[in-house]
Amino acid sequence: MKHEQPIGIAVNQLGYRSQDTKIAVIPGQGGRFHLVDDQNGETVWHGSTSPAIVDAASGQTVSRGDFTGYEAPGTYRIETEDGQTSAPFVIAESVYEDAHRALLKAFYYFRCGMALDELHAGPWKHEACHLTPAIVHGEESRQVDAWGGWHDAGDYGKYVVPGAKAVADLLLAFELYPEAFAQPLPLPESDGSMPDVLHECRYELEWMQRMQDEESGGLFHKLTTLQFPGGDVMPEADTAALYLSPISATATGCYAAIMAMSARIYAPYDEPFAASCLKAAERAWAWLAEHPDMPGFRNPADIATGEYGDGQDADERYWAAAELYRTTGEGRYHEAFQALAKQNAFGKYELGWADMGGYGTFAYLMSEREEDPELAEVLMRGLIQRADELAAVSERDGYGISLHPDQYIWGSNMLVLNHAMLLLIAGRLSGTEDYESHVHEHVHYLFGANVMGMSYVTGYGAKPILYPHHRPSEGDGVKAPVPGLVSGGPNKGLQDDYALKHLAGKAPAASFADVMESYSTNEVTIYWNSPAVLVLSHFV
Ligand code: G3I
Ligand code: 9MR
Ligand code: ZN
Question: Which of 397, 413, 396, 399 is nearest to 10 (CA)?
Answer without folding.
Answer: 399
